[in-house]
Amino acid sequence: MPEAAGDVFALVEDLTTSPQPSITADNYEAAIALLNEFATAAQVGAREEQLYDQATRRGKGQKAKKPESTEIVVRGSTAMSIVFQLSARVPNFIEQSHLDTTEGTSKPTRQYTVCWAS
After folding, report:
1. Distance between CA 6 and CA 71 in Å, rounded?
2. pLDDT tens-digit readout, 48-82
């Protein structure tokens, strides 16, 4: 349901960035996975915008239709910023879970990379 994406993103953004964030050790991984989905979707939107910009600069033939992906790209960029901000909470989550720091970080970590080609 792409039409619900904006509402879902607004909800996860509120949950993660409000003055009293609702993200805990129990739901941290799910929040990161959801934000990663938004970042992944933004890659497609960014590519569409790049193609549109190239076609406009060339000015050849009929003007290409501007993609409707700006919101998708903004959500993806914001999602990556939120992931970065949430990473600062990991030590606190480990402490709350009473894990040894080596236990809390022994799980393989994911790397999130967003590449914007020009």
Report:
1. 8
2. 666 777 777 777 545 555 555 678 888 988 999 99
Q: Is the dihedral of CA 33, 36, 41, 44 positive or negative?
A: negative
Cα separation, 47 vs 34, in Å, equals: 21
Convert the pLDDT of each residue in 6-21 to its tens digit.
899 999 999 888 877 7
Closest CA to 36 of 81, 70, 68: 81
Closest CA to 94 of 32, 30, 34, 24: 24
* Tokens found for residue 26: 């129990």
Sign of the dihedral through C-alpha 75, 35, 42, 112: positive
| Domain spans, the chain | 2-104
For residue 74, count other CB atoms closer than 10 A to its CB: 14
Q: Which residue has the tokens 């960014």?
A: 46
Task: Give the best-scoring range by mean pLDDT among 44-48, 83-87, 98-102.
Answer: 83-87
